[in-house]
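Sharing a chain and its predicted structure for anyone who wants a worked example. Both blocks are below, sequence first, tokens second.
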Amino acid sequence: MSVLLGKPEVPKHWLLDANVIFSEWTRWLLVALAEHHNATLYWTPHIESECYRNLVRLGRLHPQDAAIERAELPARLNATLLPQAHEPYLADVRQVDEKDRHVAASALALRHKVQQPVGLLTWNLRDFPRKPLLKLGLVRLCPDELCIELVKTKAETQAILLHALELMQNRFALRPPQNPTNYQTKAMPLPQNDNEWFAFLARNRMHKTARRLSRPH
């Protein structure tokens, strides 16, 4: 007989996968949501390395800017860089896709450390089966789902999005890239009105959040 698992509350500790750290916008959205929920962000050196390796490989960041940014990232995002202590937990998360198993194992290591449920934030939902992880105390969410779970009204959603945008703009004002890449110089302008927000959120896979913005209230 299968066990029915109810909808869990959003935990106060969030382990971030490399694909959610990859996007500058998503980083600051998660910072804004963490402030709103009084949550703490975490990742590991392995996750961080994967993120910055891909940012450089895909031409999103110049290698020198990547090195500077990586050294400062935990402090800037008020996050905790965990020790790489996932190996003892790999066997417990064998239902997770092999290439992502270290992420789930790191979340489980954090779960044992804090003795509380842990949110695992990723865009690769298919690689992280919900029910097996939930039984281990890991709540798997993508940023779009997280925003919907934590912010219930259109007005609150707008406030969170604007706060994330403000955080992002302040970061660039304090430390603009020293060696801008073509990707950075040709980036589309940030949204200024509702129509631009809908398009921006859609490009960033925030479809549920975009639908909430389309509601009257």
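Comments welcome. The first strand starts at residue 13 and ends at 16.
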